[in-house]
Each structure stands twice: as structure tokens, then as C-alpha cells.
Design a protein that fits this description.
Rossmann fold, about 325 residues, Tyrosyl-Transfer RNA Synthetase, binds adenosine-5'-diphosphate, 5 strands, mainly alpha, about 5% strand
Length: about 325
Amino acid sequence: METVFSGIQPSGEMHLGNYLGAVRNWVALQDQYRCFFCVVDYHAITQDYERDALSRQTLEMATDLIACGIDPERSVVFVQSSVAEHTELCWILDTVTPFGELGRMTQFKDKSAKQADNINAGLFSYPVLQTADIILYKASLVPVGADQVQHLELAREIVRRFNKRWGDYFPEPQALLSSTPRILGLDGQAKMSKSLGNTIALGEADEPIRKRLATAATDPQRVRRKDPGDPEVCNLHTLHTFFSDEERLEWVRSGCRTADIGCFECKSALADNLIAHLQVIRERRAELQAQPGRIEEILREGARKAREVARQTIDEVRDHIGLWG
Ligand code: ADP
């Protein structure tokens, strides 16, 4: 059985971009693959963060994953910093990672521009730790959003260099994209991202969801209510495709093209359907939160299972590359 690995940062709340671009796919993959899903806190500390919020956000992210349908009986769910082998392998991979390639990573450039006073080495070598995360479990498939494709290409290069230097050992991992690998934010311009504040969080209450959707950008051609629009260029239409049934979708498409409906009506229909969908996740989250210690227990058990695999890989790697002992 092939292995799947993917991770999510606990740097804020899970949002629709994470859910539709990645996590929904993770849930579906559990039926076919041996899956490892990780809350990547070591990655999160490459950015500024509040010390007292990090462990709470880590637990919340794990809760959200399980509420979304990740099943800890079938998948290994754990926190990255609980498995020290991730950083151990990262160092070994550092020695086969081309320095120049790391500087070319778009995310490194974007994040460096955003946090000019904190361009740390961890931010630079982020893709090396990410490669270690993946290949420690010899994962061949990595379900991610489009923003991670460049990192995955580099991960493949790092694996090729490892295998060339020391002989074949690791499989080359491959990115697995969902049908919508890049969900735009409410501004309709940039990708939806925790750090850009253009998100709808899965845990948001009804009224804030309605309010945030009401401000969302639509087809810029629809300046006045009677201007017809093109659903294909509207971010809200993309969101409707996930949460609305065929009948409602047809109403959106033809109503937008003929200006029979305005953006306001389109948005309130979307809000109704989105809230109904999130209700299921909300109920599961509430059930989990009503069981004190349950998530911690799941994460402890996940870390135990992950460590077992990770330790074996590291022992084999140490022998493979000629380290002592
Ligand atoms: P963020 O960019 O919000 O900090 P992460 O870096 O933790 O999110 O990403 C977790 C997963 O969600 C990754 O697989 C990433 O590719 C995916 N993802 C994040 N934002 C989007 C988006 N707007 N559209 C599609 N996938 C996304």
C-alpha cells in the first residue's frame, strides 16, 4: 500500500482554502492509502507567533482535522515536534540540498518580504524540513494545494541527490492536487491564506460568515445590480460548486449571466449552504471538545505510531550513509 503524507501549520484557524484545497482530499485518501497527517509546529515557528497561543492552536488544528473527517483509527495524526527524527533527517538532507535552489523558492521570497526583520535560516530551509517530514515515512504521494508544488519539486530533487550520493533509498514523492488547488481569498485576488486575513475560518459563527461573505469580491464587471456577470470568473461561484446542489448552481449561473439575481442574493444563498455544510463539522468538533483529553490522547498515540516508523527509517539511513553506531 502506498503511503501519503501531508501537513498543516498551526499558525491560525483552518480556513476554506486549507479545507477545499487540501484537507478534503486527505479525508478521501484514507480509504486507499496508509496516511500520515501532521500538524507542523516546527514550520510555524519560522514566522512570528505568540508563545502562549501555539500549543492551543496546535490542539485546535488537530481537532479541526478530526472534525473534518480524518479518522485516527485509519490515519496517523500527530504533531511534528513530538517526533524528533524530523529534525534529525533534516540535517542529513541539508547536506545534499542545493543552496541556490532554496533562495529561489517563491514562498521564501514572499515570506521574507512580509517579515523583513525576521528572515531566519529556518524560513530558508523550510523546504528541507518539509522533505524530511515526507520521506521519513517513505511517502510517495503528498496531497497539497498549488502553493506547495514548487517545494515538492525541490523535495524530489533532494531525494534524487540523496539517492545519487549514497545509493537508492528513498522514493521520490509526488504532489497530489485537488480539483481546486488554489482557492482565492475573499478579496478575489490572492490565495486564501491565514497570513493574509482574507479567509473564512471553518470555526467561524454564522453571523461573521454572512458578514464576511457580504464583503467578498465578485465579477468586477457587475458594478450595478442590472449588469450581467460571468460566473466563471467569480470566486463565489467557485465556492458555490462545493456547497450548493445542481439546481442551486444552475440558478446562480443563469441568474448571474442574465442579471436576474444580484450578488447579494447569490452571497446569501452561498452563506446558507456553507453554514449547513459547516454545521456537521461544528457538531463533530463540539463532540470532541466535550471529551477532555481526547485530542491529546489521539496525538500521543499518533506520535507513538509515527515515531516507530521514523526511528526505523533513521536507523536505516544512519547505516546507509555510514554514520557511526
Ligand atoms: P496557510 O497558507 O493558510 O498558512 P498551510 O501552509 O498550513 O496554510 O497549508 C496547509 C495546506 O493547505 C497545504 O497543503 C496548502 O497547499 C493548502 N492551502 C493553503 N491555502 C490554500 C488555498 N488558498 N487554496 C488551496 N490550498 C491551500
